[in-house]
Amino acid sequence: EPEVTQTPSHQVTQMGQEVILRCVPISNHLYFYWYRQILGQKVEFLVSFYNNEISEKSEIFDDQFSVERPDGSNFTLKIRSTKLEDSAMYFCASSQTGGTGTGELFFGEGSRLTVL
Amino acid sequence: AQSVTQPDIHITVSEGASLELRCNYSYGATPYLFWYVQSPGQGLQLLLKYFSGDTLVQGIKGFEAEFKRSQSSFNLRKPSVHWSDAAEYFCAVGARGSSASKIIFGSGTRLSIRP
Fold it and tell me: Residue A91 gets which letter from DSSP?
């Protein structure tokens, strides 16, 4: 069964360092998303991406964050200068349709980011 | 904008007992509704979803949920829980007609199973 894969599963970094989290969405999906979950809290929407551009982003997704689909298969989330409060589990998701479609999201297993 | 409320932070039930997890949503039209389960350290697995039609939807692992428009609710039920059902459960709502199918999650209900 096709699945969304994420790497790394866990990354530890120093505050101020740049981090790139990688995702391989399901191959025929067109919409891509990043969510995050701070430990013990709810899953929060960060950004959605379609047709090589951001469709929507939340207040959390500030200038420190960026997303890219560099090669047609990967979908990356970059945090330019990590802060302690960026420590969280980051989930990538993809969907085949968006908007008026059924829009079911398929989630990856997550990448845990720990900022020291 | 859509929102989701899960009023129960933590629920403990005995193995074999029935379960109902509450979810209330806020949205101006009929939304897409989902229940996801997250085992410790794991990702999010879709249990079931409601898009249209029959308001009682069946999901995996013996779960079901009922969409009640009049109450803006989408409660999750299981007639007999198993110890393996211990996990965090998230209700989520998606907006129809938006530019992308983002979904908004509730704060989750942690389910513990008493032997």
Answer: E
A110 interaction partners in chain B (CB closer than 8 Å): 42-43
pLDDT for A55? 87
Taking contacts as CB-CB distances below 8 angstroms, the residues of chain A near B105 are 35, 42-45
Q: Tell me which residue has tokens 């790394």.
A: A8
B53-86 residue pLDDT tens: 889 999 999 999 999 999 999 999 999 999 999 9
pLDDT in tens, A21-30: 999 999 888 8
A98·B32 Cβ contact <8 A: no
What is the CB neighbour count within 10 angstroms for residue A20? 14
Phi, psi at A102, each rounded to 5°:
-70, -30
Question: Can you tell me the distance from the alpha carbon of A108 to that of B6, in angstroms, rounded to the nearest whole number?
Answer: 23
Contact (Cβ atoms closer than 8 angstroms) between residue B81 and residue B21: no
**Which residues, at least 6 apart from B55, have a Cβ–Cβ distance to it below 8 Å?**
B66, B67, B68, B69
Q: What angle do CA B52, B58, B83 make, to 5 degrees?
A: 145
